[in-house]
Amino acid sequence: MKVGGKIIAALVSLLIAALAVFVYVKFFFVYSQGVNEGDINYFQNEGFIFKTYEGKMIQTGYNSRNSSATIQSNEFKFSVEDEQVARQIENSSSRQIKLHWKRYLGVLPWRGNSEYVVDSVVSVQPLGAPSMPVDDPFEIPIEQ
Question: Which domains does the chain have, with CATH numbers?
């Protein structure tokens, strides 16, 4: 093989490696993870080819940055891959729920429509009650 052919082969190999690293970082690397707590506004199974679970959580809070303190709310849009986690969320309507999520930099159609993918339910509580961890995914703890 001539020198020019070796250079072209090296450049093509380098380009393929750079493309593989880009695809991994964009679609499979977990950029961040965390927990959000709030009320589920909607949760649905949608899609033409890939049926995914999509939801929106409303997080209420207190805004004291300005002189007239106000109550504000933030929206947290998320997707769910695991059907068991989706059932837990569906069974938690009218309750305060805490969700653990992972954030990816890119969206894959079979993973959902959001960069935020919920992987577990941390706790569920009736509105106004203290937080309680979820042990059994199908049994929501109720205080007596």
Answer: 32-126 (2.40.50.140)
Q: What is the model's pLDDT at position 12?
A: 95
pTM over 0.70: yes
Measure the CA–CA gap between 101 and 18, rounded to whole angstroms.
Answer: 28
Which stretch of DSSP H or E encloses residue 73? Answer: strand 70-80
With bands split at pLDDT 50, 70 and 90, how would you rate the model's confidence at 142? very low
What share of residues in the chain are helix, strand, coil (percent, to 5)? 25, 45, 35
Q: What are phi and psi of 11, to 5 degrees?
A: -65, -40
As a residue count, the chain comes to: 144
Q: What is the pLDDT of residues 1-11, one digit of tens each?
A: 687 888 999 99
